[in-house]
Amino acid sequence: PNLSKSAKRLRREWIVALLKDPQKMVPGTRMPGFWPEMQTPAPDILNGDSEKQINVLADYVIYLGQSGGGTAAPATGGPSAKAQPAKTGDKVGAAKPKKHTVGMN
Fold it and tell me: In the chain, which ranges are continuous DSSP H helix?
């Protein structure tokens, strides 16, 4: 989906809830759940912390909406809707994709 207007259209809390349980938030959605029972599909990203992974993705969706869909580094976690540059050593925003991708093909 086009996320360039996500910051204006979506609340961060709703994005987090959608990522945690897509079927509960949008019954019948084709979006799969990536954190069944809050178990991470990518234990090597953000030390396998499901909450941090979900928060980073929610921040990134908000960031895309604020930037109009730009390509700069996403926020690095925590419950803030304001984008922040990625920290050195974080696997999110790294130059080369890791073997695990979350919802991206």
Answer: 6-9, 12-20, 22-25, 50-67
- CA dihedral (80, 46, 72, 67) in degrees, to 10, reads -30
CB 46 within 8 A of CB 90: yes
The residue to which tokens 């909450």 are assigned: 51
Q: CA-CA distance, 17 to 12, in Å (whole number)?
A: 9
Alpha carbons within 13 A on the beta-carbon side of 104: 10
Residue 69 is encoded by which pair of tokens?
A: 């869909």
DSSP annotation of 47 reads G
Is the full-model pTM beyond 0.85?
no
What one-character DSSP code corresponds to residue 15? H
What tens digit of pLDDT does each residue of 65-104 get? 887 664 444 444 444 444 444 444 444 443 343 344 444 4
Residue bearing tokens 């396998």: 48
